[in-house]
């Protein structure tokens, strides 16, 4: 299977994370999902499984499909539909990673070479399109127009978020509202869809659908805010991502927005030079972190994430106590605790 074969190896050697207890609850189903992913990545065009296998294996944790499986379990679903849909969710996510890395001109993802660095931009875009197509084949095969609408709507919102991010790229005038709109589209939309379809296949009341949609959306926003905070934290090295990647690319994230809003004119000139002009020295990342600490930015960014995490917890209140509910709540805590 060429590049696809590395998928199983990557799972075996992946470090233990706060996702592991929830993953353990759905381990048998996740194994079936992984087999589906491998099968659906097969193609007579050899470059497709090579590239797709590389990016899926590098993705690691399978967070989004795990949430689909867990949400279906939370809703008491006993069938098989959620397996194909979990694979579909992972294909959508993987396709967006391929496209993201091309747009961002990224050479590394989680310490590994990106597909575009290895094979070039054109193959990366086209294989991303292939994976989107595979995702839609899985949606259609499910046969539910409601599921098709939820996941296709999420795909459209993600694409809108990508374009919106381009519009605010390297712009220090970006507002918190603009940032949250991008995060809600690029990250939270797929999390919310992944969770909601668990209630749909379980044929649960709309109240439970919306509760899982809210859980996924708020968890996704908290997850991304913490991810952006960690770009300026020593914890990044422990999590497999180099400190300052986003800063070096001039990305405008919530810590940057808060730091710029609290900056004096000299500090604003610093931020404009680093992020708008992307003229940086080796000492600039340390200076950026020092400014954020001076103005209490990282602490306040974590507080933003905790607020969304709290909303995610509240969303699950309508579900009775169960092992899967407990671990879905624990996952929220792990997400926020990454900042410390």
Q: What can you see in these coordinates?
A:
The protein is mainly α and 340 residues long. The chain contains 18 helices and 2 strands. 75% of the residues lie in helices and 1% in strands. The chain has a two-stranded antiparallel sheet with strand order 1-2. Helix 8 (121-142) runs antiparallel to helix 9, helix 10 (176-201) packs across helix 11 (206-230) and helix 14 packs across helix 17 (297-315). The chain is globular.
In brief:
With 340 residues, the chain is mainly α.
- Can you name the CATH architecture? Orthogonal Bundle
Q: What's the number of helices?
A: 18
Strand order of the largest sheet: 1-2
CATH topology name, in short, is Farnesyl Diphosphate Synthase
Percent range for helical residues? over 70%
Indicate the low-confidence ranges by residue numbers.
Answer: 1-16
**SSE order:** HHHHHHEEHHHHHHHHHHHH
Describe the global form: globular
Indicate the mean pLDDT: 88
How many beta strands in the DSSP annotation? 2
CATH class: Mainly Alpha
Distance between the termini: 40 Å
Gyration radius from CA atoms, angstroms: 20 Å
Largest sheet data: 2 strands, antiparallel
Descriptors:
340 residues, two-stranded antiparallel sheet, disordered N terminus, Farnesyl Diphosphate Synthase
